[in-house]
Write a structure and sequence with these properties.
Number of strands: 12
CATH class: Alpha Beta
Distance between the termini: 19 Å
Strand content: 15-25%
Radius of gyration: 16 Å
CATH superfamily: Peptidoglycan recognition protein-like
CATH topology: Lysozyme-like
Order of helices and strands: EEEEEHEEEEEEHEHH
Helix content: 10-25%
């Protein structure tokens, strides 16, 4: 779990975010040979939809979601998904997949003419919904994450941050209209002015 006083730092060689709780998801595989992340994708997630807290996101990403615990979970039976990071409502950060590996977060997707965005992107889930405001602490945590990633990986920059809806329009809507891009970009600019050490 990241705290307000903990400096986030990416270890480029291991692909781990120091300052985040580490829980390994099996839902990942190697990136294509020679491909390094050069895009960051913001998602919104809540399980069940519109409810926060609880173990369900972790259970989903580790293939341990009990399909009988909620009617909606039956729809997720057999689904194998993950993301590199999840930022909770309390700004706690959990890493499920190393940045050097391909997380299964984007699905069918395209960015600037390049398809299969999982190959070259980092997925960042914010616990939230399309219609409910995200927490101030989540914007600060996202900004710190983006600054740490950009400090570690030269192909990344704050300008290369998009929403899931941007790379899968018509199929996905997250992080939704409740996500304040102006606020996020302002926080990222402030965090990037004082990048973490790598």
């Amino acid at each position: 779990m990241a705290t307000e006083d903990a400096e986030l730092r990416v270890d480029r060689s291991s692909g781990l975010l120091h300052g985040a709780l580490q829980i390994a998801s099996p839902n990942c595989d190697p990136r294509p040979a020679g491909v390094e992340a050069d895009l960051m994708v913001v998602h919104g997630i809540s399980l069940p939809p519109g409810e926060f807290g609880g173990p369900w996101i972790e259970r989903l990403f580790t293939n341990a979601l009990p399909t009988d615990a909620h009617p909606y979970f039956a729809e997720l039976a057999g689904v194998r998904v993950s993301s590199h990071l999840v930022i909770g409502r309390d700004a706690a950060i959990t890493q499920y997949v190393k940045f050097t590996e391909r997380a299964w977060h984007a699905g069918k997707s395209c960015y600037a003419g390049r398809e299969a965005c999982n190959d070259f992107s980092i997925g960042i889930e914010l616990e939230g919904t399309d219609t409910l405001a995200y927490e101030a602490a989540q914007y600060d945590a996202l900004a710190a994450v983006v600054a740490a990633l950009c400090a570690a990986y030269p192909r990344l920059s704050p300008e290369r941050l998009v929403g899931h809806s941007d790379i899968a329009p018509g199929r996905k809507t997250d992080p939704g209209p409740a996500f304040d891009w102006r606020r996020a970009r302002s926080a990222i600019a402030a965090a990037s002015a004082h990048p973490p050490r790598t």
